[in-house]
Specification:
The protein is built from 10 helices and 19 strands. The chain is an alpha/beta fold. The strands form 3 sheets. Strands 10-12-11-13-14-19-18-17-15-16 form a 10-stranded mixed sheet, sandwiched between helices. A 7-stranded mixed beta barrel has the order 1-2-8-6-4-3-9. Strands 5-7 form a two-stranded parallel ribbon.
Amino acid sequence: MNVDAWLVLADGTIFPGRSFGAAADAAGEVVFNTALTGYQEILTDPSYRGQLVTMTCPHIGNVGVNADDVEALVPQAGGFIVRDYCPFPSNWRSTQPLHQYLQRHGVVAIEGIDTRALTRRLRTAGAMPGIISTTIHDTAALVALAKRLPSMAGQELVSAVTCAKPYRWNEPSWRMTARPAPTAETPRVVVFDCGAKRNILRMLVDRGVAVDVVPATTSADDVLARHPAGVLLSNGPGDPAAVDGVVATLRALIGRVPLFGICLGHQLVARALGATTFKLKFGHRGANQPVHDLRSGRVLITSQNHGFAVDPDTLPADIEVTQLNLNDGTVEGFRSTRDPLFAVQYHPEASPGPHDAAGLFEEFVQLLSA
């Protein structure tokens, strides 16, 4: 193999490979995603800010990229790690090969990696800092640099991905026809942008909701001044324990307006209720995570992307745990028995992934008029 790039982990593990992205270096937490499809949605998910994403699916690039499947305006992952890259896409929706897209946006990517060995290492030792380099070929120096990188624990990354100012979102899913323009009677939802995926916004519009997206720094008074029928807390990157400002705002909103939290939003709502969160060994990232719904008895296959979880023993007495992860028993959902409030740890909007949990958006819309 022609080696022109290196992946090194903070524990000293070294993987030689080939570059197919930008000629540069990237540092971050090395994680793995088990989804078989949807690499473009994964790359553009703001929850991956500060991370180098490994795809366990060995063949990546065969469907190229397109303008409809992005979850943010530009890629958000710090770097991309794959086994085999296909530079010649064959898909009717493709407008560009993946490598051109990555190079245009300055994303470092490496192929030729034994992703099975890498994933086993991360499962054994846990997600850890690492570096992809196309410019430094002294691996000992790279390992030394990787050892000095900070853990994801304690990092506040929401401020790096939230929007600069409020905006209105009107775009439905690409499969849907355009919705009528909202009227004064249309229920309005304020979405806290902690790194919101676009498909969350699309799913709300698909259900006839007017959507206002606001920065994560927005105060409770400013939210209530918009007279929302409900508030949604989005997904996002980093450690929820470092996002104190949003947690304080949520405390002022609980009980005054219906709340729905997704992923990081789930963790932030829990913290606002007085619960604590903790870092998972290697997290849940993929489109095949089984979740047990304790109310219905059903098992949902879900899309997930998170490295932290809620400690159920710290939730207050009026909070009911509604869903559990069947792989490790961690909390996947809860609701309040007192206030109009519920949250889930996974991504009901999918993109990529199954749509087993899409009904949660209907549940939220029903809560708006309750």
